[in-house]
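Entry:
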Amino acid sequence: MRNMMSKSALLLASGALLAAGSVHAQTDRSDWPDNFTVGTASQGGTYFVYGSGWANFIADELNVSGGGEVTGGPTQNLALVHEGNAAFGLTTMGPAADAVNGESPLAPGLKMDNVCAMFPMYETPFSITALEGSGIESISDIPDGARIGFGPSASTSDTYFPAMLETLGVNFDRRNGGWSDLGGQLQDGLIDVIAFAAGIPIPAVSQLEVQTDVNIIEFTEEEVQTVLENFPVAEFMIPASTYQTLEEDARAVSMWNFAIAGCDLPEDLVYEATKATMENNDRMMSVHRSAATTIPENIKHNTVLPFHPGAARWYEENGYEIDEALIK
C-alpha cells in the first residue's frame, strides 16, 4: 500500500510540474514590454472610462504596468498604435477603414498596416443633445448657424457627424473640445447643441441631465435612411433606460468599435490580454456597462482590420472562426 501511495504521489507531482512547465511555456514574458499605454479619448467620454478601466484590469491580470492615455480619439489612436507610441488603443470601424486605405486625415497617403484588431467593444450611437430651454426638439429644429460641439478634433464624431448633419440640411458653426468641456459650454449657453458619437451612457450627458433639463434628440425614419445611404453606419435604438430624460427608445445610427493592438506586439501578450477580456465579461461590465457587447460573438463586425495572431489564437481555440485573410 505504501509503494502504491508513493507512486501516486510521484505521478501527481510529475503532473503538476508538467502543467506548470506548460503554463510557463505559454506565458513566456521575455519579449513583453515593461509597461503599456492604451489610447482612449478625451475625459468625459465613454472611450476614456472604458479604455482606462480596461487598462487597469489588464495590468492587474497580467501583472504588467499600464494605463489609459487621453488622446484625440479613434483616428489618433490608430496613428499612435501604428507608430508604436501606444501598445493598445480603441477605434471605430469608419476611421479604421480610412487608416488601412491610406485615407486617414492625420496621415493622408499612409496605409497603416501595423494596426491589428483584438476584440469587439460596443456600438457607438450618434446622438444629439440640447438644453430643453433651447426649443430644439428635432434635427430640423436646429437653427441656421447653431454652434454645435462635435467632440475632439479628428474624433469619430468630428469626422462623421458634421458631414451627416450637412447631408440632412443643417447649417452650423463647428466647435471642438472634450465631452466634459462641451457639456459645460452647453450648460453655460456658449454652444447650442452637442453632437455625440460615444458609447452609451455618455458620462457627460448623464451629468448634464442631473444638473439641468435636456432634450436628447432622435433621428426621424427618413433621416436615418438618408444617413444609411451615405455613411458606413447601421440603424440603432438608444434604450429608454439609458438616460433619465428618455421616456421611450430613441432612433439613431451607430458604428462598431474595436480594441486594437500593434501587430508587432508579442503574440502571447495579446493572447493573454484577449483571453482575460473575453473570459471576464462581468469584470468588463463593472468598467462600463456598454461592455455588455464585449463578447466574442461580435468579432463578425470587424471586416476591416486584420486580427492580431494572439487574439486569433484565442478565438480559434474557443470555436470562433476567423477568415484566414483577416489574420495578420
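The beta strands are 35-39, 65-69, 88-92, 115-131, 146-149, 172-175, 193-197, 214-217, 234-238, 250-262.
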